[in-house]
Write a structure and sequence with these properties.
Strand 8 (about 105-115) and strand 9 (about 120-130) form a beta hairpin. With about 140 residues, the protein is mainly beta. It contains 1 helix and 9 strands, in the order H-E-E-E-E-E-E-E-E-E. The strands form 2 sheets. The protein has a 5-stranded mixed sheet with strand order 2-9-8-4-6, with no helix packed on it. It is elongated and about 90 Å long. The N and C termini lie far apart (about 90 Å). The protein has one domain (about 25-130): Immunoglobulins (Immunoglobulin-like), CATH 2.60.40.
């Protein structure tokens, strides 16, 4: 094979490789830190976080989990088209660890997807738990 044909073949393969790489999903979140503020022990706080697909292929959510049973999370839809968004709903139960717990607490929500560069996205949930006022 001549040098010209070999060079042309390498350029074609390179362009095809770049096109394939750009056809990937890309997961991002509107925020990675969800500050719930002060919560009286026993209060349940629910917030939503927008999850975006900034890539060129469908973003498929494979799983959503949390670091503790005091925090629940769901994401809908589980397949997000390029340029579209989904909603991560997070619920935190400040009384889940008993009535005596107070102080700062941080938990995590994990979103697993088919994004090859960032297969796991983490959103931190922070709150300050206050003891109820004594009458």
């Amino acid at each position: 094979m001549g040098k010209g044909k070999l060079l042309l073949l390498l350029v074609i393969v390179g362009v095809m490789g770049l096109a394939a790489c750009s056809s990937q999903p890309q997961i991002t979140a509107a925020t990675y830190n969800l500050a719930l503020g002060n919560l009286v022990n026993g209060e349940i706080a629910t917030r939503q976080v927008e999850i975006q697909n900034g890539g060129q292929a469908d973003l498929v959510i494979e799983a959503v989990s949390t670091s503790c049973g005091c925090t629940e999370a769901t994401l809908s839809p589980l397949t997000i088209a390029p340029g579209e968004t989904g909603v991560l709903s997070v619920s935190f139960d400040s009384g889940a660890h008993g009535p005596a717990l107070s102080g700062e607490i941080i938990r995590q929500v994990f979103v697993y997807s088919n994004d090859p560069k960032q297969p796991q996205l983490v959103v931190e949930v922070a709150a300050t738990i206050l003891l109820p006022a004594v009458p």
